[in-house]
Amino acid sequence: QTAFIWYAGELEYDYNINNKWSINFHIIPGIPDFFNFGFGFRYWIASIPSNKEWRSQPNKNKWFYKKKDVQQIE
Fold it and tell me: What is the pTM of this model?
């Protein structure tokens, strides 16, 4: 017999310091045997688009925003 037991998942939180840098905290609870904690820094190559910018461009490839694309929205 076999059984699937959901053993772990990841909880992650990103705190934006400014438009390019963020701090990342995460935990992977593997109850009852282990808890894996971690943190790090994330540098965004392109600036993070706001929700308004993100939603108003449904047909664009959203991972490759160019500065002129964002300026056209504003």
Answer: 0.47
